[in-house]
Amino acid sequence: MDDGAARFLRCPRGHRFDAARQGYFNLLTGRGTEFESDTAAMVQARVDFLGGGHFQPLANAVSSAAESFAGNLPLVLDVGAGTGYYLKALQERVSVSASVALDISKYALRRSAKELPDALCLVCDVWRPLPVADQRVDLLLNIFAPRNVPEFARVCSDRAVALVVTPLPHHLREIAELAGLLGIRPGKATEVATSMAEFFDVIEVRRVEFGMRLSPIDVRNVAAMGPAGHHTLRIDVDSLPPTSDVTAAFTVQVFQKRAHTS
């Protein structure tokens, strides 16, 4: 990467990628990707909701797990970084030498590049080979994002830690029907552990659950920032009570890569 006025990346095959004006790099070439990325409206809803501090307990739990199991971190990779909210919280608590934020949405990476000026923010498809060299990553974050486990194993160093966060079935249950939220399968955390088992061992599972008092606008934003945001949301905020008591519930699974499994 050139650190001058014309910043760029060059891959081993010689392809050059110039930095966007907002500071991120778009690695989706040719036909791009078949997967639907978060829209500008979805990203704005996420920025507004997270900016209210509603998910701060989850950010604290992720940072605490990283601090407990990973120590000082030469390189952190956030796969599905979104707006960079959790990676920023981690950097404020744990010593990180370098970080890479990956997401399929250019709108999300614009926010990441703004919030994480020292991070390398890359628009890419997680189902393709990740743009990271073999065995370079010391901590991998995967928060509400797809998991390309063989690629996770390839880029993680021996004994590297991976933190995977998934919602529990009763997450946001109080507003699920109203907001048209997708259901969360029972046993999802077990499915995640099974999918990681070829390369990673579970070393701890943390359950994070807390209550939130949400305004009507908060309810709309939490619905619009997730998969439901890809569809037309018909939430009449004027019909909602001034505040809604809503449950947030997650599983934070801590994995460690087994040696010589890349």
TrEMBL record:
Pfam family, one: Methyltransf_25
Chain ranges of the Methyltransferase domain: 76-145
CDD domains with a match to the protein in the record: AdoMet_MTases (cd02440)
Gene3D superfamilies, per the entry: Vaccinia Virus protein VP39 (3.40.50.150)
Protein's name in the database: rRNA (Guanine-N1)-methyltransferase
